[in-house]
Amino acid sequence: MRVSLLIGLAAGALTAAVIGPVYGGHPALVTGTLVAGVSALGLAVAHWVARRQSRWALRNHFRVVVATAVGVILVTVLAAAELMFVSNHDALMISAIVVAATLVALRAAQVASASVVGEVESVRDALRAVGAGEREQRVEAGAAAELAQPGGGDLARPSDADGGAGGDG
């Protein structure tokens, strides 16, 4: 969460750095603070999703990432429009916000996919071990619905008792 907080602050600082030289300190401060706050909220949503992701399909995780980025953009643009759009500087404002939201989207994707990536690495390592002759490999899966099985998400080697089918059919 600390890295996400830093990313949110960096998004606000980046926005302020773009706005400040052109429109001055006050608009830069207001816009940077707005972007940092909305970014922190978007990343908090990503962390919330990451804690609950075992109930969701992997594609839904990525939908959340996109929704987080779009949400950050829309909320920030709407709030900025209410607070300060009084002249023709809209293009610069929106560009700065989109750049900042890109940082948020990158971090949200990283947070939301971290446990799935870890499980994929575990499956890879288990497959390498099986290829090297170690036949009793076990991999716990639970980060994504696609990897979890009704038996608790344990991806064990099929036993001789089930005929070695290892699947539904």
What do you see in this structure?
By secondary structure, the protein is mainly α. It has a domain of 112 residues. Helix content is 70%, strand content 0%. The protein is built from four helices and no strands. The longest helix has 42 residues. It is elongated, with a radius of gyration of 22 Å. The C terminus is likely disordered.
Distance between the terminal alpha carbons, to the nearest Å?
Answer: 43 Å
Q: Which structural class fits the helix and strand makeup? A: mainly alpha
Q: Give unreliable regions as ranges.
A: 157-169
The total beta strand count reads: 0
Shape: elongated
Percent of residues in helices comes to 55-70%
Major sheet details: none
Mean pLDDT: 77
User: DSSP strand (E) fraction?
Assistant: under 5%
N to C succession of SSEs: HHHH
The helix count comes to 4
* Radius of gyration of CA atoms, rounded to a whole number: 22 Å
Spell out the key features of this protein.
single chain, mainly alpha, disordered C terminus
Which secondary structure elements does this structure contain, and how are they paired or packed?
Layout: H1 2-23, H2 25-52, H3 58-83, H4 90-131
Concise synopsis of the structure shown:
This protein has 4 helices and no strands.
